[in-house]
Design goal:
The chain has about 140 residues and is α+β, with helices and mostly antiparallel strands. It contains three helices and six strands. It is about 40% helix and about 20% strand.
Length: about 140
């Protein structure tokens, strides 16, 4: 059973942002807690990006913004209400995203080494190795 939306406090209201880039993480808020995940949910409607909050309920499909109808809103709410809020999993995922961001920010060292032969500094090589080992998705 879905909660009465009028009874939900704004800070507890479920929210979800699914960016256009399928590789970008999905950001979900439920019960005042942030949930991040690499998986884009599958709905009965096609979408390229999606925004769902108390005030915005729309999705982008083929370059056109579409307001969700009542059935789509109910489907998204049902999905949000069935999520298992795992603080530990969310924390590990957020840390892994930070590590991936670090790797991306230091990729230029590796590219420079390949293109010019200038070696990657030892501290950067070691930090990148530690980051790769620490990344966890489950």
């Amino acid at each position: 059973p879905m909660p009465d939306e009028a009874a939900i406090q704004p800070n507890d209201a479920p929210m979800m942002i699914i960016p256009m880039d399928p590789r970008a993480n999905v950001s979900i808020m439920r019960g005042g807690r942030h949930i991040s995940g690499p998986t884009r949910p599958v709905f009965s409607f096609d979408y390229d990006a999606l925004q769902f909050s108390m005030t915005v309920r729309s999705y982008l499909h083929d370059g056109v913004e579409v307001a969700m109808n009542e059935a789509q809103i109910a489907e998204v709410l049902q999905f949000l209400n069935t999520l298992d809020v795992s603080e530990e999993r969310s924390r590990r995922y957020a840390q892994s995203r930070q590590l991936l961001d670090y790797l991306a920010s230091t990729d230029w060292y590796v590219i420079r080494a390949l293109e010019t032969g200038v070696p990657v500094p030892q501290d950067v090589r070691e930090a990148r190795a530690r980051a790769r080992e620490a990344i966890q998705w489950s």
